[in-house]
Amino acid sequence: MQMSRSVVSRGKDVQEAIALALQLLNTQRDNVDIEVLEVESKGLWGIGRKPAVVKVSTREGRSAGSTSPADSAALPTAPDKTDAFEELVRTIEQLEIPEDSLSSVPERRDSATAARHAEGKVWVRNGQIYCKDGINKFPTVTPCKGAVLYKNGEPVDGSVIVTENDTLRVETEREVTPTKWEIFLSPDQLKAILQVKPGSIIERKLLDQEPADHLDLRLEEIRIRKNDIDIKRVLDRAAELGIVQGINHAEIVRACESEEGGEFVIAVGREPEPGIDGYLEFMVDVSEQTSGPRERYNGTIDYREKKRIPSVKKGEVIAIVRPPREGRPGLTVTGVTLLPPPVRAMEVKTGKGAVLMEDGMKVVAIEAGRPHVQIRGRLAKIAVLEKLYHDDDVDMRSGNIRFTGDVEIFGNVEEGMEVSAEGDIILHKNVNMAKITSGNSIEILGNVIGSEVVAGKSNLFIAEMSLLLGEMAVQIRQIITAVEQLYRTPAFKTADIQRVGLSSLIKILLESKFKAFPGLVKQFYEKARENKQVLDDEWLEFANRLYLGFCTIHPNELKGIEDLERIKHKLNELHQFSLTPPDPNASIHLPYALNSQIYCSGDIVVTGQGCYNTRIYAGGVLKVKGFLRGGDIYAGWGAEITEAGTKGGVPTRIVVPHDRSIIIKLAMEDTVVQVGKKQHKFLQETRNIYARLDQNNELLLF
Amino acid sequence: MFHYQVTVEDTKSVLSLNGDLDIDAFETVKEEIMTEQYSTQHVEIDFSRVRFVDSTGIGLLIDLVHHLRNGGKAITIANVSREVQEVFSLLQLADILGKDVFI
């Protein structure tokens, strides 16, 4: 009774692997079946070299076991062996050898002695089942899970009697879990990741057992982690995925050789490098000096302590227009170019007193005066403003004052008079029943009574236009879509449009689908005309063209779809512009106002006693150091008020947008605060109010 | 070339348009069709032989309908091909001329 044994061995080539296996089995090539499992591979660029793997099994009936001295220790059960080698072995065995020189000899003797007591028993040695017949007693064997026992070539189910004449063979199951791997790209396509989960091989071997009447076969499990990724397949897969950029071969090898597996970044793209937007480099100090009078340490206000007002001479370079610098494009691992965010140029428009020189690269003063710079998004406006000084009162004698630059008035502004300036206005005395309008900031040192004070008028107008521009932009897009749809309709001829333009089509569209559009255009046109003193020509021109195209429906205005596209573009541009607050924004500083109206596109600071029954609109922050008694107040960026409300007098209502807050140190009863759409009326005197909305849109008051 | 024909059927006059209602039909519509004397109160505009329209042509149609209505006529538009109807729908002509016009 012999059983087949097999060995899986590796070598740098097949020859070496077989030689190794034969050595392990202690047999010769003629006695074995050889199965080549894997041929060696040299790998790519010398990496990923793989050994040859062979499975060598001894043939049944020619047990290698009996040929080896060690196996013969497991009882000589094949006396018919005539192998020359065996004979040699026997000869050697018969030689007298000193005991210490051959350790296996005593062991063999022990085993042989044990074997003499083994009659009627069965045992396992070196992975093989042996048995010895007994008298009136047969040994039995029960196979186990994972091992199939063949008795004389037939598989055995359950326990079985074995005799010396049986050929017993056990086949054990070998479990191979292949290595799992996958290449995936990061969402931004800038990395390729090889995810490796190494496979395993579970080899099972019969466990040696001492002779017994009955044997339950037992197995020894050897689990070997095996990462058998073929580097070539990884590279093929990477190529299939189009990965071409920044491949890290060393990392691929590391992944393929890794025992633990994991994620390996096998290719890295290049991120785009953002460029730098164009900007203005100022050659003179242009910082705004309209921050108002300074407060002394003791809290009083020093009106004389003013900062130096910046000024330029004729011909002086105010600023250099620096062009944008393009970024560097990146590459994904698949070789797709990633464009850096577009860079934008600073567009410069010059107003009075300034011109662009050297192809628009330099802004130069042609008048002496105060450089006035306003930046809104990517658009900068630069002008040099002259200053008008008026030492007396503004009254019937002086007449109204209108000036394109800054104005400073040292007297009062009397009833019914008007002061308007494109630049800043500084008024040293009182304003009574008058109208003050500034394109920029206003600073009043006296009291304001029954007057209208407007600062940043064009900004106010532009902010006001925002809704209208947005709505027109939406509608013009829809008009374009409608026209494009018509163009695609087979029964619609476009020859007349080439001859006479779009006007007849627009006329029909404005009569049906877009009835509301001419109304919006008309509103825009009228408002632009009303505010033409404070607006750029650009706005008026555009308003005119819109009016001609959509209200008059002049055939020359809309020749084709390109004209509609141009209008759409301009509307979007102006709409964006209207949403961007200017920098610096206008401001108003005044100490006291009564029964007045104060509008400012930016901040309003009430520096003195406070306001009584005054309507206030601040596009920016409203700060009132004194009281605020009565009136409707709106502050676009929030309000800070020391004292608000009156005792049983005119109602005081303070409104800010939903994302802003109202701070009031002391609010009298009947003061109303409104944040977004939530409002609260205080029923009694309340201190330290901090009104704002929480995440759930609930109004918090403290 | 665009031309037209008026026939009287019982209580209605049928104005059959023939050809493309486009900018080239301008004079015919303005000078002939609009000045035509229709003996009945009901005028039906037959579109069965109009295969193409352009925006000028639709403008003319709108003018014509308004002109005849001002003259006290009841107008219907009949036999509009599917293709031309598509143009009418995109322009929401029914909103301009009234839904009852199309039969």
How is this structure best described in words?
The complex is a heterodimer of chains A (702) and B (103). Chain A has 702 residues and is an alpha/beta fold. Chain A has 5 domains: 1-73 and 76-113, no CATH class; 118-269, no CATH class; 282-385, no CATH class; 388-457 and 583-700, no CATH class; 459-579, no CATH class. Helices cover 22% and strands 35% of the residues of chain A. In chain A, the strands form 12 sheets. In chain A, strands 30, 32, 34, 35, 37, 38, 41, 43, 45, 47, 49, 52 and 53 form a 13-stranded mixed β-sheet that branches. Chain A has a 10-stranded mixed β-sheet with strand order 31-33-36-39-42-44-46-48-50-51, with no helix packed on it. In chain A, strands 19-22-27-26 form a 4-stranded antiparallel β-sheet, with no helix packed on it. In chain A, strand 52 (686-693) and strand 53 form a beta hairpin. Chain A is elongated. The model of chain A is unreliable at 62-81, 96-112 and 303-307 (pLDDT under 50). Chain B has helices at 26-33, 55-70, 82-90, 93-97, and strands at residues 3-9, 12-18, 42-49, 53-54, 74-78. Chain B is of the alpha/beta class and 103 residues long. In chain B, strands 1-2-3-5 form a 4-stranded mixed β-sheet, with helices on one face. In chain B, 37% of the residues lie in helices and 28% in strands. Chain B has a single domain (3-101), classed as Transcription Regulator spoIIAA (2-Layer Sandwich), CATH 3.30.750.24. Chain B has 4 helices and 5 strands. The N and C termini of chain B lie far apart (26 Å). Strand 40 of chain A pairs parallel with strand 4 (53-54) of chain B, so a sheet runs across the interface.
